[in-house]
Amino acid sequence: MSRTKTMALATAAAATAALTIATPASAWTGGSITANLSTPLTVNSSIGTATCTSSTLNGSVTAAGALTVSSASIGGCTGTFSISVTPTNLPWGGTLGTSSATITGFRVSANVGVLGGITCIYGGSLSGAVSGSAPSLKATFSNVTVNKISSGSHWFCPGTATIGGAYTITGPGL
Q1: 158: phi then psi, degrees, rounded to nearest 5
Q2: Any idea which UniProt keywords this protein has (predicted)?
Q3: In a domain, 12, yes or no
Q4: Range of the domain at 129
Q5: pLDDT tens profile 107-119
């Protein structure tokens, strides 16, 4: 084999080895996941506080951590006033990492029993911390501020609300 061919093969082998070493392993298997509320969901605003005791998020995660929440439910809500919360604008996007999680496009409609009943719509991005490891993770969201969506919200609704709670995430996608 000529010296040129030997150098070319050695260079190609070194480049392949460098790419293999530089490419991180995937964090997840990729596939479906379910997140069940494990710590009550709290919503605080200037007109009161609500606590919800049940919530499920269903969706998927890619091997690279891209998150899609395709269905969501929130229930068992009580508070300063009667309240029911409905997730809207699905699917939501986001990312799921080994230490943090973000849900983008988050939006909920809350029917609040004040002034004879009003609708307040809030949205934004939720960012939280992830702990544990597959096959069961915990995502904790603490005092995350969401903004009122003016279109469809009653004028009396506060401009912001804060949300907190924790979800246990399981599924073959992890």
Answers
A1: -60, 155
A2: Signal
A3: no
A4: 27-170
A5: 999 999 999 999 9
Secondary structure percentages of the chain, helix, strand, coil, to 5: 10, 60, 30
The answer to the question of residue 22 being in a domain is no
| Confidence band, pLDDT 50/70/90 cuts, at residue 27 | confident
Our count of domains for the chain comes to 1
**Element spanning 111, H or E:** strand 100-112
CA dihedral over 25, 29, 32, 33, signed as positive or negative: negative
List C-alpha distances in Å: 28 to 2, 93, 126, 137, 152: 45, 16, 21, 12, 38
Taking residues 4-33, report their average pLDDT: 54
pLDDT value at 30 more than 70: yes
Query: Exposure of 75 by Cβ count < 10 A (0-12 exposed, 13-18 middle, 19+ buried)?
Result: middle
- Does some domain include residue 21? no
Contact 127, 144 (CB under 8 A): yes
